[in-house]
Specification:
The chain is α/β, with parallel strands linked by helices. It has 20 helices and 16 strands.
């Protein structure tokens, strides 16, 4: 549908052969192609005939398109009417105006547009039992289920609705019978202040979070390093958009992966969760809070604008059945038994120290939290061996996180020597593309979807079991492939090839299929 006159010619030329273009007759798009079907509709004339008020015409003209398309695709007009009545339930006149425009477009198409294409929409019950939700709302729901009580943020597209959804649910479920809120949502002066509040709350024992996008991630770098080195839990949702700088705020991307993985100066590594559906936005948001407190570190959840802001159909979310994992926290009873503790000492062999929370009433409960050099007892130090000891333990903790983060999802037939790795919203287009590759070229391809960093050992095994592995991602610089190259043995790195998409629009299956076929010489 050529809704934008400024791009109508360009959009028409981009249609695949056999496609369909429905357009305002004054645009005369038929002159540009002979291999697609054209339906010319006098949208402006029809709109003027049903809407005497000129100022309102631009608001309802698209409804004429809806009517014409409904007729051409054989959509029951009653379904459209039901949707409009629901949308304008309290605005009868608005409904009547919009449905009148739909009806006018429908009638015009029925009388003047003989069907020339094979496309139609058939009613089915495949959506039975499904829900519709966007990824940001699902992430907010997961945070509430995980017990978040402190939210600090600064508005930025496309992550704002994560906090809005979280706040709405907190107001509904985190208020006492007397009307007292048991949570705090604070709009900070900027993203740096927001993550500072998150770490302060996490240090004090609250489950805390913020949500941002690329520019905000850049501002959070210094505090992210503090969270890593001082070992303070917190959850950061990064709904990725295009960059660098302001970039295109309303376009999607996966180009924050590398910067988040090593966010801050010095030797810093962060745990990252990578949801690939709205259901996983809920599940991994929930998991992020457990991991942050278990590992005592900031945990990042990376989705993207496409997954976060758009509505998706999903299976109903599973109600969490496991208790919250608050990590290694010492109580007064523990301290009485132990006689004291060293905050950053590895006493259990998992590279995670025990901590206390402020307010623990015991003379041995206190410790210094510092971003400067410290030893395992949290004392200031510049001694090389003590600094190395802490840094090596942090490295071991990150290595152990491989066994704690969500594992990858694998689809393979056991015979293919070609594999594909991807993460996040790439999954939808890639799954369709693998079907296309099988049907068009008879080539089966194994697929593993990565769901977290550090990478699980299964990813190493997947690469080792294939001759070639394509890494499909939505950024220019092959960031996922770069992380994998840092992680894999040298003899396995040569197996990796990249398929990249970074124009800001959601990735489509045909793009992957064509690039794969070219690289494979099919």
């Amino acid at each position: 549908m050529a809704l934008n006159p400024d791009t109508a010619r360009e959009d028409t030329l981009a249609l695949p052969a056999g496609g369909v273009a429905i357009y305002e007759e004054k645009l005369n798009l038929k002159q540009y192609r002979e291999d697609i079907v054209f339906y010319s509709v006098p949208i402006d004339k029809i709109t003027a005939g049903i809407c005497p008020e000129p100022k309102l015409r631009k608001l309802v003209r698209n409804m004429v398109y809806v009517g014409a398309v409904a007729q051409l695709l054989q959509i029951d007009l009653g379904v459209v009417e039901h949707g409009l009545r629901k949308q304008f339930a309290k605005k009868v006149k608005v409904f009547e105006l919009n449905f009148g425009a739909v009806k006018a477009g429908f009638d015009y198409a029925a009388e003047n547009l003989p069907k020339q294409d094979p496309y139609f929409i058939e009613r089915s019950d495949k959506t039975k039992g499904k829900i519709i939700i966007d990824g940001n709302a699902a992430a907010g729901m997961g945070a509430v289920f995980a017990g978040v009580t402190v939210v600090a943020w600064y508005p930025i597209t496309p992550s704002t609705s994560v906090v809005e959804a979280t706040t709405d649910m907190l107001k509904k479920f985190r208020v006492t019978p007397e009307g007292k809120a048991t949570f705090a949502v604070v709009q900070a002066e900027d993203e740096l202040a927001a993550i500072g509040m998150v770490l302060g709350a996490g240090w004090a024992g609250a489950r805390s979070m913020t949500a941002t996008s690329g520019p905000g991630i850049s501002l959070m770098a210094e505090f992210a390093g503090l969270g890593y080195y001082a070992e303070i839990p917190g959850v950061i949702f990064d709904v990725q958009r295009t960059g660098p700088s302001t970039g295109m705020p309303t376009r999607t991307s996966q180009a924050d992966l590398l910067s988040v993985a090593f966010l801050s100066h010095g030797d810093t590594k962060h745990v990252i969760l990578l949801p690939g559906s709205v259901k996983e936005c809920f599940e991994l948001a929930y998991a992020a809070f457990d991991l942050a407190e278990r590992l005592q570190t900031p945990v990042f959840v990376l989705s993207d604008l496409d997954l976060g802001m758009n509505n998706w159909m999903s299976e109903v979310f599973d109600y969490p059945t496991t208790p919250l994992d608050r990590g290694k926290v010492l109580t007064v009873e523990d301290l009485n038994r132990l006689g004291g503790f060293a905050r950053y000492r590895d006493v259990d062999g998992d590279a995670i120290g025990w901590r206390t929370l402020p307010g623990t009433r015991h003379p041995k409960a206190a410790y210094f939290t510092r971003g400067s050099g410290h030893n395992d007892a949290a004392g200031y130090t510049e001694k090389p061996d003590e600094y190395i000891e802490v840094m090596e333990r942090l490295s071991r903790k990150f290595e152990n996180a491989r066994k704690l983060v969500p594992g990858p999802i694998t689809v393979k037939d056991g015979t293919s020597k070609i594999g594909v790795l991807a993460y996040g919203s790439t999954d939808f287009a890639l799954t369709e593309s693998l079907d296309q590759i099988k049907k068009q070229y008879g080539q089966s391809v194994d697929y593993m979807r990565i769901r977290a960093y550090p990478f699980a050992h299964e990813i190493h095994d997947f690469v080792a079991s294939h001759d070639r592995v394509y890494v499909v991602e939505q950024d220019r610089d092959a960031q996922l492939a770069s992380l994998l190259k840092l992680d894999l043995p040298a003899d396995q790195v040569v197996k990796l090839r990249s398929i990249l998409h970074y124009n800001g629009l959601p990735l489509d299956a045909e793009t992957i299929t064509e690039e794969f076929a070219t690289k494979e010489g099919l």
